[in-house]
Specification:
This protein is of the alpha/beta class and 248 residues long. Helix content is 33%, strand content 17%. It contains seven helices and nine strands. A seven-stranded mixed β-sheet has the order 1-7-6-2-5-3-4, sandwiched between helices. Helix 4 packs across helix 6.
Length: 248
């Protein structure tokens, strides 16, 4: 990584010393390595929640298990619960769980963070672990989205910024209802978008890209819809599940 890309890391010293969950935006298939590099150099062993099919690839799967990465079987509720238990164990050992809450490379045409899934927020609320946003920009100049070969000339440079802990204090301690998860997830989206905007030196778009709708939608749409259905105390808790892994 030192040879392939130049880098500028900001805020690594603010990472918690105890177990924490980091969420990052996703613009390139190479950025997990870039984020892991920064987290590792800060003195923390990175553990990714990743889709279980990656663990079936002979050499990659063996490497990921050896490094105690956490497989997520999103189609199997029992296996997802095991993933959640494994993540709890990592956090109990003061480890760092890294989650890409978008679930895949952003589909936003301008590469802004898109609508996130609720797994990271769910895990943070269930464990009480700090939720830290890590924004990065520039890795896509090394390896563009879905590109087959990297570009090494001229030598690319990327920037990475650790943001302030996402405040979930008012959401902790109660049932994990849909509106609570939607509210917490929108805070993740806001934190990542703000971090990317600062790195890019640009104002973000008013809306956020929704993968299902294939367009930008209002940023507070999910939590507003959830709160409009029922008061929070009347909602049913959602079923426990592990955070989403990366999807190709």
């Amino acid at each position: 990584m030192n040879g392939l890309m130049g880098k500028e890391w900001v805020g690594l010293e603010t990472l918690p010393s105890n177990g924490y969950i980091a969420v990052a935006n996703h613009v390139s298939e190479a950025d997990p390595v870039a984020v892991a590099h920064a987290v590792y150099r800060a003195g923390h062993t990175p553990h990714f929640l990743a889709k279980d099919s990656l663990f079936t690839i002979p050499l990659l799967g063996r490497l990921m298990r050896g490094l105690q990465q956490v497989p997520v079987a999103r189609a199997d509720r029992r296996e997802s619960q095991k993933s959640l238990e494994a993540a709890h164990e990592v956090l109990a050992q003061r480890g760092c769980i890294i989650i890409y809450p978008e679930g895949t490379l952003t589909r936003d045409p301008e590469l802004w963070p898109m609508r996130c899934k609720s797994g990271a927020a769910r895990l943070a609320l269930a464990t009480g672990a700090p939720l830290i946003p890590i924004s990065q920009w520039g890795v896509q100049e090394f390896l563009g989205p879905y590109a087959k070969l990297p570009r090494i000339i001229p030598r690319p440079r990327y920037r990475l910024r650790v943001g302030r802990e996402i405040d979930l204090s008012d959401l902790r301690g109660g049932p994990l209802t849909r509106s609570v998860l939607a509210d917490a997830t929108e805070r993740v989206e806001a934190a990542l978008t703000s971090g990317v905007a600062e790195l890019r030196g640009e104002d973000p778009p008013e809306g956020i890209w929704d993968r299902g709708a294939r367009c930008r939608v209002p940023r507070n749409q999910s939590s507003a819809a959830g709160r409009g259905k029922k008061p929070r105390h009347e909602e049913s808790p959602t079923e426990p599940a592990a955070g989403e892994g990366e999807e190709r």
